[in-house]
Amino acid sequence: MAKEIAFAALVREHQGLLFKVTSIYTDNETDREDLFQEVVYQLWRSFDSFRNESKISTWIYRVAMNTAITQLKKRKRRPDAIPISESILIHSESGDEDFEERLRMLYKHIERLDVLEKGLMLLLLEGKGYKEIAEITGLSESNVGTRISRIKKKLKTNMIKS
């Protein structure tokens, strides 16, 4: 019983993280709910195997992202057709319209990235360092740095064109 209570508290505590990951990899509410449920199921299945070798949020990100990518492969969706929900956009409290427009444009261009690139950008925008992103994704820290650098260059080029 204590295990179930601890797990439920963990899911409640990291609900926002799970929402962001499931939102970025789905394009409608029903799919988001299904993916959320699948992620929670996968977290439950592997809950006993968590060894506290990393932060719990790192482990949750890794399980959530791997589950989302697996689901995408099963459904044979095209990664570039998955929009980012407006509900995960960060809105400025300053009311700066120019900033808001640039942010919307950034997310519009992030939508066009492939699955791994979206995940890397999500983690970077969440303030994760390269080391933690590497732990979450299973990539080397230098590979994360290289990929993020290329993604930034790609986004900059695409944003200048539009």
- Total strand segments: 0
Mean pLDDT: 84
Strand content: under 5%
N/C terminus separation: 55 Å
What's the order of the H and E elements? Answer: HHHHHHHH
Radius of gyration: 16 Å
Give the quaternary arrangement of the chains: single chain
SS content category: mainly alpha
Helix content: over 70%
Q: What is the general shape?
A: globular
The unreliable regions are 77-82
Major sheet size, sense and barrel closure = none
Whole-number total of structural domains: 1
How does this structure look, described?
- There is one protein chain.
- With 162 residues, the protein is mainly α.
- The protein has one domain (2-161).
- It is built from eight helices and no strands.
- It has helices at residues 2-13, 15-24, 29-46, 56-75, 97-111, 115-125, 130-137, 141-161.
- Helix 2 packs across helix 3 and helix 3 crosses helix 4 (56-75).
- It starts with a helix and ends with a helix.
- Mean pLDDT is 84; it is low at 77-82.
